[in-house]
Amino acid sequence: MVWLLLFIFALVAVLSGVAISYVAGAAAVLAFVISDHAAYLGILPQRIFSQIDVFTFLAMPLFILAGETMTKGGVTRVLIDLAMLIVGRLKGGLGYVNVASSVFLAGISGSAVADAAATTNTLVPAMAEKGYRKDFAAALTAASCVIGPIIPPSIVMIFYGALMNVSVAALFAGGIVPGLLMAVFLCGYNFWIARRDDHPGGTRESLPPVGPTVLRALPALLIPVTIVAGIVFGLVTPTEAAGIAVAITLVLVFAYAMMDRNSVGTALRKTTRLTSESVERTVMLTGSIFMILFAAAVFGYLMGLLQVPEQIASWVQSAGLNNTSYFLLASGIMFLAGMVMDVSMALVLLVPVLIPAAIAGGADPVHVGVVSCLNLTLGLISPPFGGCLMVISTASGVNYLRLSLAILPFLMVQLVLLILLILLPEITLALPRALGLIR
């Protein structure tokens, strides 16, 4: 009964608009008192700082800064033009452009929300103008932006790797094939809808010029290749790769300003202004992420004291569940939690509790990590509180309820892929194993 009241307190606080990190922290402290562990509260400051004193976490603000700077510097438009050049002439071409743009952007920002914000204002009006239903265009944009945190670099995977002590390089390599498969699944659904609803293809006149488009896009495409290759082959750490990404981004933004025939002084001022705006945004996002880590450290400490992971492992063994059955169950719990919780909060609260039992049962930590990151990221496009749905609804002007209904077919397609990845671990593990990152 006491734990039910604690849950009701947390739910009411969230619905009233209190930041979820504050809610989780307050609920965790109250839980210490309720569970008769108040004597351990004095150790919390040490536990909190030990939780966030992880070198890998430094990569997060740097990757966020690189993504923010590239978005503000016009790289998004360049990559969309490249996608239009490659697949825009096909029937339902703008749908394919939507998915392809997310694949390109995934190698830069590593954030679903950032990709959603970057592409919605450009692609949704363009698709509506060509005869696509606006809610379909917005839903496809939401579904495709989930690719961002799966194809490396991925902020969510950095989070997971640091929390669970799993190689970030192996997680990055493991995310490549699932991310590309998600793009294939979404393109397949777009192919069917394009023929059913007779969506148009792009005309030759509407396609961007080949030479200038490729010239501007190639430097941007080299960034994810350089970062991922450096991490996967052990040349740099994720944090060093993030620093390289920021440096290349600043050079690239300056080069684009020069290509637009600006003077050196104007290009420098533009780059400085964009960097300043990006730094401000990065500080805000990083602060919110570390607030979540603070709250999660409190909650995680309590779960350890109560031996919840051990109890779950004991229950799995006594229930006679095999590893696959348990992981399917745990994935269902994470998906439901992702529907109402922030991805970072759900990850740091649920993964340390649910995943150790799966690994103890024989699951590969990299496979479990990639699937868990994808699972929780799907919460961003899952009603009722999908973060990407809210961003896209606001940016596109599509009613949130209409968008929530329109996203359901896409969500079903992605859930099919999620189940396939759970049942066939080799889809995820083949590339990391071929690269020698896991046995």
Fold and architecture overview:
The chain is an all-alpha fold and 439 residues long. It has one domain. The protein is 77% helix and 0% strand. It has 21 helices and no strands. α3 (44-52) packs across α13, α8 (134-145) packs antiparallel against α18 and α11 runs antiparallel to α12. The longest helix has 42 residues, at 264-305. It holds the Pfam family DctM. One of its GO terms (cellular component) is plasma membrane. It is found in: Cell inner membrane. The complex comprises the extracytoplasmic solute receptor protein and the two transmembrane proteins.
H/I helix tally: 21
Distance between the termini: 47 Å
What's the Cα radius of gyration? 22 Å
Helical residues, percent? over 70%
> Residue-averaged pLDDT, rounded?
79
What is the subunit arrangement here?
Answer: single chain
Q: What share of the residues does DSSP label as strand, in percent?
A: under 5%
The coarse overall form would be: globular
Low-confidence stretches: none
Number of strands: 0
Structural class from helices and strands?
Answer: mainly alpha
H/E element string? Answer: HHHHHHHHHHHHHHHHHHHHH
Q: What's the structural domain tally?
A: 1
Largest sheet: none
